[in-house]
Amino acid sequence: MFPIILGTAKFGTYTSREESFSVLDGYLEMGGRRLDTANNYAVWHPDGKGGESETVIGEWLKSKNRNDVEIMTKIGAQSVDGFTYDKLDGLSPNNIMQSIDDCLSRLQTDFIDVLYAHVDDPSTPLLDTWRTLSSLVEQGTVKSLGISNFNEPRVLELVDVINDNGLEPFQCAQYRYTLLSPNIDANFGPQVVMNEHLFGELKHLECKPEIIGYSPLLDGCYEVSPDELPDEYDNLLNAIMVEELQMQAEENETTTSALVLKTISDYGVTPVTAASSIERLKDNLKLLI
């Protein structure tokens, strides 16, 4: 299996249609086939409303063999007001069914390879959510299910719900993950950072989900000065780690980003990584392919 999943969150907003097509084509030529998107990408862009990434992928997909590509999309984290994450559209049965119809339309396909519950929805019983998602697998509309940003107690509760009711298990579990540890007061909104304990729990689940990490490169922060880390990661220990990684990468004549992705992959986490150009993507994958 290709060692990384291509992140497409910026396609159609920060990254133009033409640039997006170029990266998608190059990724496919390199042997990659797994695309990570969501129905709310990229609502945080000034001109974004959500759905832009899926729309670009759908347009690109028209000239490809659908079976050559694995589309992984997510629902349930669309901002209701379009600006904040204070209230999300959630995972009620009705919203799931409406969301999947919209995703299929934008992606111009009749099935989704992996459908994620993007963010936990405490206001909807897990049984209601998972019965509806399982029904999509039974119909063939979705090939498999995943979870993203569920904290540890809710993961274990969901596993019990699935086992007690004979529902479809989740095959992927996706979380925010990089080599740096965030500051204790860091606020990522609805995103859940995977720590060692959560990683251990996921590894020991009977359903054996693939553990996937998004934002592994923190938008290129490993390639800049250790004094310029994002606020959520700005501390002395992280600065020292970045400096050491940069020195190690230089000694091995590679990029620090490539070293980070290799380390994460060796640890047992599949990285979701993006790039604005195919040249940058190739640089990032130097140690993996």
| Main pleated-sheet profile | 8 strands, parallel, barrel
The number of helices is 9
Indicate the CATH class: Alpha Beta
The fold-level CATH name is TIM Barrel
- Low-confidence sequence ranges: none
How widely separated are the two ends? Answer: 11 Å
Return the domain count: 1
Q: Which CATH architecture?
A: Alpha-Beta Barrel
Q: How is the topology of this model organized?
A:
Elements (H helix, E strand, L loop, with lengths): L4 E3 L9 H14 L3 E3 L15 H10 L8 E6 L17 H15 L4 E6 L8 H14 L2 E7 L3 H14 L4 E7 L19 H8 L6 E5 L21 H16 L4 H12 L2 E4 L4 H7 L5
Helix pairs in contact: 2-3, 7-8
Protein name: Aldo/keto reductase
Organism: Grimontia kaedaensis
Question: What would you say this structure looks like, in words?
Answer:
The structure is a single chain. By secondary structure, the protein is an alpha/beta fold. It has one domain (5-220, 257-284): NADP-dependent oxidoreductase domain (TIM Barrel, Alpha-Beta Barrel). The chain has 9 helices and 8 strands. The protein has helices at 17-30, 52-61, 93-107, 126-139, 152-165, 196-203, 236-251, 256-267, 278-284; strands spanning 5-7, 34-36, 70-75, 112-117, 142-148, 170-176, 210-214, 270-273. It has an 8-stranded parallel barrel, surrounded by 4 helices. Helix 2 (52-61) crosses helix 3 and helix 7 packs across helix 8. The longest helix is centred in the C-terminal third of the chain and has 16 residues, at 236-251. It is globular. This is Aldo/keto reductase. InterPro entries: AKR_Detox_Biosynth, Aldo/ket_reductase_CS, NAD(P)_OxRdtase_dom_sf, NADP_OxRdtase_dom.
